[in-house]
Design a protein that fits this description.
It contains ten helices and 14 strands. The protein has 312 residues and is of the alpha/beta class. The strands form four sheets. The chain has a six-stranded parallel β-sheet, with helices on both faces. It has a four-stranded parallel β-sheet with strand order 7-6-8-9, sandwiched between helices. The longest helix is centred in the N-terminal third of the chain and has 25 residues, at 2-26. The chain is elongated.
Length: 312
């Protein structure tokens, strides 16, 4: 009889452990990103998925295609399908707020990566590049490279994204102190390479004698460079980007692009997945915002970097 009781106890303990194990396995992460039409965001999403897998969780990547309506569909599907956390790269700082609040109401934590939403009460945590400071560094190098004079163009990203304005403001906080540097055009190209090429072609018709282009991301920098090549001006116009994307890292090595701001998507994606794991295990006290430093990359230090990060 005593043996039977001990055996029964062991069976119950084992069953309890198994149930907890099964419960843990049922947790899964939705990875909702603004677009997969940009290699930088592909890397961000895939890194988040890889970290989720390393931690023992299933995950699925959802592409919002820079469309807040599609993003809303993804949130509704993720919540209805029982995803336990959302690793989120927002499409619109204001327009995405409603989706984050919807997830919060459903008890699903949201961890923002790279881009933020304009609410202090929605996301469990926001892990963001320090775009402003990174662009200050680019601005300083821009001034030095231009010898404090010349005409330049600025290509802005998505106007609804806070990163667009953080980068622009950081850049101008320094460059605007030099009256010899004159901005002759400022236009949005939506962080898109093809649109940047088209916008740059149009600007060059009105301002054929520019000396430099500052772009809010590397995709636009490559698009601008393509337009300059087509116009026969690539050798005399300096192009500055922001991201640390693979093609721009290579272009800096080849002296085609002057500089970029290296972001660290691996850090942001892995931190978001790690935070979700900690949330599943009971943690609730997370920092609301975590700034991730951006580093200036030029031909002088390019050998210290690889695409999307720094060499080990």
């Amino acid at each position: 009889m005593r043996y039977f009781k001990v055996l029964l106890l062991l069976v119950l303990v084992f069953a309890g452990c198994k149930n907890r194990s099964d419960s843990a396995k049922q947790k899964k992460m939705a990875i909702i990103v603004s677009t997969l039409n940009n290699p930088w965001f592909v890397f961000l999403a895939q890194t988040a998925a890889a970290q989720a897998k390393t931690l023992g969780y299933e995950s699925k990547i959802f592409d919002s295609q820079n469309n807040t309506a599609l993003e809303t569909d993804h949130f509704e599907n993720a919540i209805a399908s029982g995803y336990s956390a959302i690793l989120f790269n927002p499409t619109d700082a204001n327009g995405s707020v409603v989706n984050v609040l919807k997830a919060k109401k459903a008890g699903v934590p949201v961890f923002c990566m790279d881009r933020e939403v304009n609410t202090a009460d929605g996301a469990t945590s926001q892990i963001l590049s320090d775009s402003y400071s990174g662009s200050v560094s680019i601005g300083k190098y821009f001034v030095q490279s231009m010898h404090k004079k010349g005409k330049y163009v600025e290509l802005l990203g998505l106007v609804a994204d806070n990163n667009t304005w953080s980068r622009s403001k950081g850049f101008h906080s320094l460059v605007d102190y030099y009256p010899g540097l004159k901005m002759v055009a400022q236009q949005s190209a939506d962080f898109d390479r093809n649109k940047a090429m088209e916008v740059m072609e149009s600007i060059l018709q009105a301002h054929p004698d520019i000396d430099a282009v500052f772009c809010g991301n590397d995709a636009m920098a490559m698009g601008a460079y393509q337009a300059l090549v087509a116009a026969g001006k690539a050798n005399r116009v300096k192009v500055f980007g922001f991201d640390g994307a693979e093609d721009v890292v290579q272009a800096i090595k080849e002296n085609k692009i002057a500089a970029t701001g290296m972001q660290f998507p691996k850090v942001m994606a892995q931190t978001a997945a790690n935070y979700a794991d900690e949330y599943f295990k009971g943690k609730r006290d997370f920092p609301k915002k975590i700034p991730v430093a951006v580093e200036l990359v030029t031909n002088d230090n390019i050998n210290d970097y690889i695409a999307y990060g720094k060499k080990d």
